[in-house]
Amino acid sequence: MRYDENRSKCRTASDTRLMAFVTLNDITLHYRFTQGRGRPIVFRNSLGTDFRIWDDVIAQLGGQAPVLCLDKRGHGLSDDGPITMDLLVSDVAALMDHLGLKGALICGVSVGGMIAQRIAATRPDLATGLVLCCTGAQIGDADGWNARIEAVETDGIASMSDAILERWFSKSFRTERTAELAGYRNMLTRISAVGYAGVCSAIRDSDLTHQSQQIAMPTHCIAGACDLATPPALVETLAGMIPGASYQILENCGHLPCIEHPRAIARSIQQMHGALT
Predict the structure, then answer these.
(1) Domain limits for position 11
(2) Mean pLDDT in residue range 83-92
(3) Collapsing DSSP states into helix, strand and coil, what is residue 179?
(4) CA of 65: how far to CAs of 29, 60, 117, in Å?
(5) Based on the structure, what is the number of domains in the chain?
(6) pLDDT value of position 227
């Protein structure tokens, strides 16, 4: 499969690879690549989730653009393995190179937004625009991440799932959408403990302030008003440090707006994608 920039379309044997795997950087990654025309859109998901969190957003986009999603190492159906921010970024870059994708709109939530920032700074050929949801140039502090790593290694992810879900979702989601809440709890608790702790350490060790200040492409930052993990002030600070970035806050929304407000996220992506085309 290759993205042909001259003809502005993607070619593949089938429209969508629902169970696609590739070995890159000595690790097997699970991804989904959907054929389309025009500028590709690449989605990066958060700590403790797999790429299905973007499904409702993608369904709103109309199926025109090529779309790539992938599970981070240690998450979903991708392998466990060593985890650093450099490796998380390298995995995305290697897969995009493998598929021949360049000049994409990259959309990331939480650590996925950090990965998107690093790609923009280190491989600007791969990106021409960013949509950054509920993220920052630096998230949390070392003490907090070390405590979480110790907890998951000692007691497992299930022991702290209630606290995580409170950060992920608004109160109304947790009380009114109980079946979905149970499903996302399952997604979280079935993530590899090694993978979860590894991504925690990657976030802990990353301060992207200098690199984010150098981003030179259109960027839209989105915050959730009820987000306890990356509060709106953190996202607004990020928007302020990226030259020309715009900022939006979604009411009644926690840490994962792609799940709580997929239509709003899709509209922002469509507007950004249209402006870049």
Answers:
(1) 2-276
(2) 98
(3) helix
(4) 22, 12, 21
(5) 1
(6) 98
